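Title: Comparing notes on inverse folding

I've been comparing how different people in this forum approach sequence design from structure. To keep things fair, I'm posting one structure and asking everyone to reply with a full sequence. Here's the target:
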């Protein structure tokens, strides 16, 4: 989401013991995360926070956070290197607004020790850990050595930076054996990570990981370690103050992933028993104390089928999925971060931290889930409606109807959170929230999210980081419709089509032409659904439509307010929520459409088109070159992830239609082969 930051004034604090007359007057939040919109929305009224200033780049000026703020400062154009990674511009904005503290959110400079150091040099409080902890935990190589010294379980691997040389690659792999994980020493969020199962994949993994790491974090150093196949990804939330006190706030299960990035998270985990939970929490606190950590942080672990757990990394910032921890503990983590930054002690002891209920978070992305579980999608939100009216549902977002989703940033639209007294209750609320979420204008991953949370394996808690490829080995194909589902869907589409026709014939509730013939009561329609054609007969009486589908009658009734994004319809007496694409034609239009020429499928073996919008970061061929099957032709970077485009056959390059640095759209022609 295009969420920038905020400057918050704390003039007087009332009701918070220990914070009265605090010295922090301005808190500047300068980056693009829903956390900052949360700060703007809540503003901690009991503390007297009321003045806000958003620091944004040019392309996101119309966004929600800017409208909520009292003032806004532009920090540069859309490319991150010229805005949200431009420390000079951000420091100028902080000086201009007179900010006395900065909340960095997550991403960009949130774990950058140089940024924290520059703030300290200016006398500005960084709402997060100090530079020592950021450096120690931000470097995966150093953090692993510190974890070992703190008696934290670690993954077997090569302790040090692996250079981009074949000798080093082979030496490390020979010691560890395949598969191995190659990942960036700096940063996180799944960027700069590759799994390699062979020498060729190792070489390719090193190249792409180093390029992604340099692009996302400005640091191309890599490390290599043994890949634990089929694990769970479970993390522990920690909270520590500047007085040596530290707590673990239970765990979050983050095993549902694609491309090493989380998709669905929940708290607590269905897998951990109390003893394992405590052991993981105590090791997480031990690591935090080893680096004198002070703020909210997350220690991530991989957990195998026997509940053995291994340190993965520590994120020295607030996590995207922190709301589910807030739900089950009742703690406001942003508020706690501000208190700690001011120098106050933790208000709670370990025995005070509860597990109340169950919370699930779905990351709603502007992605096409039918392409590799989610290739980025861009565009303008022509229709957008969040399910915030539902009980137990929270939506953290920074967009609204009319917002643009661009190629420059992460494709996340929102964080959708459902909270219930039990896991079953939370799952039911999440299902309803996804069904009632309306997004038009960009392709989104809600169909995939919904299928995940209702899948029997997920409901049973039988998950791992390989869940998606195991459940959908041929890729995600959408919701499989039963015969009954198909009839109900076709009937609903037919009824809506006729309801829209009847509405267009009326003006202020009356027929547009007074002498018009008596209103029709029966229709015949042709509907196309998933490449199948169906003939339907529809009749209408007193607000109810009776639709005959495949010899069976389906009754559709309800409030026909076609201006609403969601209609509360009843199908055969049951309420349903349906979001599908169905083509509806009159019998005449269907008969004429048979004469329309069909577009012949393209010979994709001879051409290469971009599967997503993005930027060309490398072209490896020129006209006249001969390429082999699977050979890399070019590399497309979309939303900070690099994707290698390869040849589908052995042939000579006929023409090249792109060059390094160009922006391309989905379907744009890149290269032609003879």
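Reply #1:
Here's my take.
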């Amino acid at each position: 989401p295009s969420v920038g930051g905020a400057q918050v004034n704390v003039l007087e604090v009332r009701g918070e013991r220990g914070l009265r007359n605090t010295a922090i007057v301005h808190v500047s939040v300068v980056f693009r995360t829903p956390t900052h919109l949360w700060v703007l929305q809540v503003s901690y009224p009991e503390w007297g926070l009321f003045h806000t200033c958003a620091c944004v780049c040019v392309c996101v000026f119309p966004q929600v956070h800017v409208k909520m703020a009292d003032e806004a400062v532009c920090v540069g154009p859309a490319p991150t290197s010229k805005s949200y990674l431009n420390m000079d511009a951000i420091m100028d904005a902080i000086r201009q607004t007179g900010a006395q503290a900065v909340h960095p959110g997550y991403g960009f400079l949130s774990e950058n020790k140089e940024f924290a150091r520059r703030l300290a040099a200016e006398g500005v409080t960084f709402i997060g850990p100090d530079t020592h902890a950021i450096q120690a935990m931000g470097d995966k190589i150093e953090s692993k050595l510190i974890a070992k010294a703190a008696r934290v379980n670690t993954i077997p691997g090569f302790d040090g930076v692996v250079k981009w040389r074949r000798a080093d690659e082979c030496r490390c792999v020979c010691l560890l054996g395949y598969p191995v994980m190659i990942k960036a020493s700096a940063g996180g969020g799944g960027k700069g990570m590759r799994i390699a199962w062979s020498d060729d994949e190792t070489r390719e993994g090193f190249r792409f990981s180093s390029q992604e790491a340099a692009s996302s974090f400005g640091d191309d150093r890599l490390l290599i370690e043994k890949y634990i196949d089929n694990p769970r990804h479970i993390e522990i939330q920690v909270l520590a103050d500047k007085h040596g006190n530290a707590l673990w706030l239970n765990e979050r299960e983050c095993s549902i992933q694609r491309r090493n990035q989380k998709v669905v998270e929940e708290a607590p985990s269905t897998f951990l028993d109390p003893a394992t939970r405590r052991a993981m929490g105590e090791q997480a606190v031990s690591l935090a104390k080893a680096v004198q950590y002070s703020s909210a942080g997350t220690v991530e672990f991989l957990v195998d089928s026997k509940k053995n757990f291994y340190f993965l990394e520590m994120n020295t910032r607030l996590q995207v999925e922190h709301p589910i921890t807030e739900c089950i503990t009742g703690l406001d983590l942003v508020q706690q971060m501000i208190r700690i930054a001011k120098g106050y002690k933790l208000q709670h002891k370990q025995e005070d931290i509860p597990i109340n209920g169950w919370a699930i978070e779905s990351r709603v992305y502007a992605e096409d889930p039918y392409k590799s579980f989610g290739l980025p999608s861009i565009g303008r939100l022509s229709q957008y409606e969040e399910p915030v009216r539902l009980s137990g549902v929270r939506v953290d977002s920074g967009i609204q109807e009319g917002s643009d989703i661009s190629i420059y940033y992460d494709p996340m639209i929102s964080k959708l959170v459902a909270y219930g007294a039990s896991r079953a209750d939370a799952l039911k609320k999440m299902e309803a929230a996804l069904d009632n979420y309306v997004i038009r204008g960009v392709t989104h991953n809600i169909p995939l999210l919904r299928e995940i949370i209702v899948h029997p394996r997920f409901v049973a808690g039988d998950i791992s980081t390989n869940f998606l490829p195991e459940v959908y080995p041929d890729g995600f194909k959408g919701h499989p419709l039963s015969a009954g589902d198909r009839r109900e869907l076709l009937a609903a589409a037919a009824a809506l089509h006729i309801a829209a026709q009847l509405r267009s014939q009326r003006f202020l509730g009356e027929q547009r032409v007074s002498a018009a013939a008596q209103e029709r009561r029966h229709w015949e329609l042709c509907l196309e659904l998933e490449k199948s054609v169906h003939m339907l007969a529809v009749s209408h009486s007193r607000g109810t439509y009776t639709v005959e589908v495949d010899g069976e009658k389906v009754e559709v009734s309800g409030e026909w307010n076609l201006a609403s994004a969601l209609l509360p319809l009843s199908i055969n007496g049951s309420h349903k929520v349906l979001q599908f694409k169905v083509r509806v034609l009159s019998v005449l239009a269907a008969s004429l459409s048979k004469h329309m020429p069909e577009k012949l499928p393209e010979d994709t073996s001879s051409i290469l088109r971009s599967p997503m919008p993005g930027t060309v970061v490398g072209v490896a061929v020129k006209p006249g070159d001969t390429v082999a099957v699977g050979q890399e032709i070019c590399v497309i970077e979309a939303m900070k992830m690099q994707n290698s485009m390869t040849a589908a056959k052995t042939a000579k390059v006929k023409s090249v239609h792109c060059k390094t640095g160009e922006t391309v759209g989905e379907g744009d022609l890149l290269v032609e082969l003879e």
